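Ticket reopened. Same input as before:
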Amino acid sequence: MVRIITEVSKYLIIFFMVLYTIKCFTVLKPVKEKKKRRALNVQIFYVFMIHFLCYLTMYLHYKTVDIIIFYILQMIISILYMVSYHAIYKKSSRLITNNMSFLLLIGYVMLTRLDFDMAKKQFLFASIMLGITAFIPLFIVKCPKIKNWNVFYAIFGICLLITVFIPGIGVEIYGSYNWIQIGSFSMQPMEIVKIIFVFFLASSFEKSKGFADMIKISIVSGIFMLILVLEKDLGGAVIFFMVFVMMVYLATGKHSILIGGVVAGSLLVAVGYILFKDKFSHVTTRINAWIDPFAYIDGDGYQVSQSLFAIGSGGFDGTGLCQGLPTSIPVVSSDFIFAAICEELGVIFGLCLLLMYISCFIYFINISMKIRNTFYKNVAFGFTICFIFQVFLNVGGVTKFIPSTGVTLPLVSYGVSSVVSTLVIFAIIQGICVLENSDINKNNNIERSYNKNNVKEKNIGKSKYRDEFSGE
Amino acid sequence: MSKKKTSAKVNTEMNFQENNENIDKKSNDQKNVPVLVITYFVVVLFIAMLANIIIFMVRDADTAIANSYNKRENLYAEKVIKGSIISSDGEILAETVVDSEGNESRYYPYANMFSHVVGYDSNGQSGLEMLSTYYLLTSNQNIVKQVYNALTDKKNLGNNVVTTIDFNLQQTAYNALGYNDGAVVVLEPSTGKMLVQVSKPDFDPNNIDALIGESEDSDSSYLLNRATQGLYPPGSTFKILTAMEYMREHNDYQKYSYTCQGEDIFSGVGIHCYSYKVHGNINLKDSLAYSCNTSFSNIGLSLDKAKYRQLCEDFLFNEDLPYDGYYSKSSFVINAKSEASSMPQTAIGQGDTLLTPLHNAMIMSTIANGGVLMKPYLIDRIETCDGNMVKKFKPDTYGKIISAGEAETMCELLTGVTEYGTASDYFYGTSYTVAGKTGTAEFNEAGDSHSWFVGFSNVDNPDIVVCVLVENASSTGASASYIARQIFDAYYANH
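Engineering reply: fixed in the latest deploy. New output:
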C-alpha cells in the first residue's frame, strides 16, 4: 500500500509541477486583475499540493512525528508570510512571493530527505530572514538617499571580502578560502558583498560624468574580483564579472561593451590560467572533471560523475522521494542539490524548476524595464543578473554543461549565507516593484498636469503621500 | 505637511537633475535595449542548458550510469530480477534462479568455460557481470505488466545482455588450451567485437563464495583474468613493431639484408637465434618469417629511440586501452635517453617491455584493419526478457594508428611467417590464408619461455584476429600456433 501511494504521489507531484510551471508563464500575459488573482491562487494550491505529497511520501518512509510537525510549521510560516506580506504591501508582486515560497519549500523538502538537521537549520534562518526582509521594501521607499553612498559601498564591500584573510576567522572549505567562522556561526562574505557590489555599481553610474569615472569604477570592480580570485572563489568571481559587464552595458547602452567584455573576460581567464596554472591546480581539476568526468572518476571527476549517475539513474520521472541514492554525491545538500531533485523527483521536475527560475528572471526583467528611475533600474537589473547567473552556474555545473564552480542554487540549496542574500535580493526587487507600482499611478498624474512640482513626488514614491497631495 | 515643504525646498535645487533621472517613456524604451539583448542572451543560454540535460537523458544516460562507481545497484535489485547473459549464438551463460522462497541466486550453466569473461556477482563482481549490471537490472518489460507487478508487489524481469562472445569458438579455444595456463583472445578487426576471451587457470563461478574465501589465504591466481590483466614479455611478436619502425625510418627497407650467423654481439649484448640456428643472408620479410633475433637486434640498433617510443605509444603502450573491463596497462620503457645496450633485447621483445594478450590482439587487429583500431567490446545488444531489442551497441573507432599503406605492407610481410616461416608447419593446408607472428618469450634466467601466436585469417579481407598465449610452453610442450590453428579451423567450419 505504501508503495502504491509513493508511486502515485510521484506522478501527481510531477503533474502539479508541470501545471505550476505553465501558470508561471501564463500569468505574465496581460490579463484582467481578477483573472490574474485567480491564477495566482491556483498556483498556491499547486504549491501546497506538491508540498503535501512530498511530506506524505517522506512520512510514510521515515514514520517519525518530527516530519509532521516540521510540515505543519512550514505551512504556518508560509501562509502567515504570504497573507501578511500582501496585506502590508498592497502593491507588491504576488508572483514573486509565490515563486520565492515555492523555491524555499522545495529546498526544505529535499533537505528533509537528505539531512533533517540541515533542513531545520535552513528553515529557522530563512524564517527569521523572511521577517527581517519584510522591512526592506519600506526601507527602499523611505530612503532614496541610498543611491548617494557609492564610496561607502566600495569600502564596506572590500573590507567585508577581505575578512576571510584574517587569521582565526577565515576558514578553508573545499579548497576555497571564502568562508569566515565566528564561534559556531559560519558564512560566506561574498554572498552579502554581491548585494553591496550591485549597489556600488548602480550608485557610481549615477554620479559618473565621463570616461575617467568609468575607469575608476572599473578599477574598484577589478579589486573586488581580484580578491575573489585570490580566495579561489571562482563562481563568485564569474558572477561579479558578469554583473559588472552587464551593468556597464546597461548604463552606457553600447553594444561594444557587451561583446568586448565577454571577449576580454575570456582572454583574461585564458591568460590567467596559462600564467598561474600551478597556483590554480583546482581550476585544472575542475576543467578535467568537466571534459570527461568518468575518466577521472577516482579523483577529480568523482563528484560530477556521481551527479550524472544520480540524474541518469532517476530518469525523467524520478525514483520517488527516499527511493534513490542522492547521498552518494559529495556536498549534495548545497552545491549539488539539483542532482538530488532530478534523481528523486524526476528530470521533468528538474526541468520545470529551471523554467520556473527563467519565469522569475523574466519577471524581474519586466520590473527593471518598467522603472524609469535609472538608479533603481540598474539595481533591479544587477540583482536579476546576479540571481540568474547563479542558477546557471549551479545547474550548468551539476549537469556537466559548464565546469562546476561551487555556487549554490538560490533558495533551494542548503546554505545560510546564500539563503539570506537571495532573500534580501528578492526583497529589494519587491521593494522596487512596490515603488514602481506606486509610481505608475503618479506618472499618470504627472503626464496629465505637467506640473513640475509633482515630479519630486515620484522620487519619494509613496501612494499614500500622493493621495494627500492631490487632496490639497 | 512639513515633510512636503522640505522636499519642495530640495526640489527647487535638484529640479534639473530629477528631470534627467526620471526619463520619459521614449528614452526609457531606448534605455531598455540592452536589457532586452541580455534577456535573449540568458534565455538562449538556458535553452541550451535544458537541451543538454535532455540530450544526456535520451542519448547518454543509459551507458553513463552502467558504471561500477554507481552504487545504486541494490536499489535496482529491490525492484528487478537480474536478467541473463547470453552468447551471440543464443546460449545462456548466466541467469538468475529464484527458489520457492523467493531467494535469488546466479547460475552459470557452463561453469569454468566462461569464468573470466562472464565473471561472478557475489563477493564483488567481475567480467560481464560487472560491466552489464545496470543493463541486467533495468527492466523494459511490457508497461502493463510493470504496472501489474507494482500493484501486486512483484519484481519486474530485468533485461538480458547479448554478448559478442561466440559459444562454439570459446568452447574450441577453451578445449584447445587444455590443461595449460594461458589466455586466448579473438577479435573481429573490422568491428572490435570480442568473440573469445579465455583465461586459464579458471574457476567455477557457481562456487565463487567458497573460492574467494580460499583464494585469500592461498597464493593461487585463478581469479586473475590473464587475457586482459596478465602482463607478459611480448617476445618475438614485438618484432612487428620493430619492423614497422624500421620501415618508417628507412624508405629502402626492401633492400635490407643481413647475414645471420646464429649469434652475435650487439653493443656488448650477446644475442642468439632460437637454437642458435644460422639463417644466412636474409631480407626483412625473411627476418620476420624466421624470427631472426640477430637480424632484429641489428635493426634495433639503427632505430631512433624517441620515434620508436612514439610508435609504441601510438599503439597504446604506457597508455589506457579503450576497453571497459579491468585490464593492465602495457609498458615500454625505451626513451631518447636509453642506453644503446638496451636496444638489442627490446627489439626482439625481451627487455622490459610487457603487454597483455588483449593488447597484442589489438595491435594485430589494427594492422588487419588498415591501420584503424576498433574499440574492443563485449556487449552486442540489450534485449527485454521477451527478446525485444532495447539497445544495440555499434562498433566504435578508436582512431587511425598507422597509415593504410603501412598496414598493407605489414600484412604482406606477415604472410611469410605462415607460408614458409616459423608457423608454416601449423598452417599447412588451410582453406584460408593466415598472416601472423609467433613468439617465444623467455621469462626467467633459466630460459623457460611462454609461447605466443598472434595473427589473422583471410589476409585480403581479414575475418578474425586470434591471439594465443601459453604460459611456460617450453616445459609443457604446447604450441600457441597449434591452438590458434584449431580456432581458425573452428571459425571456418561455421562461416
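The first helix of chain B runs from residue 2 to 21. Chain B touches chain A through 51 residues (CB under 8 Å). Please confirm and we'll close it.
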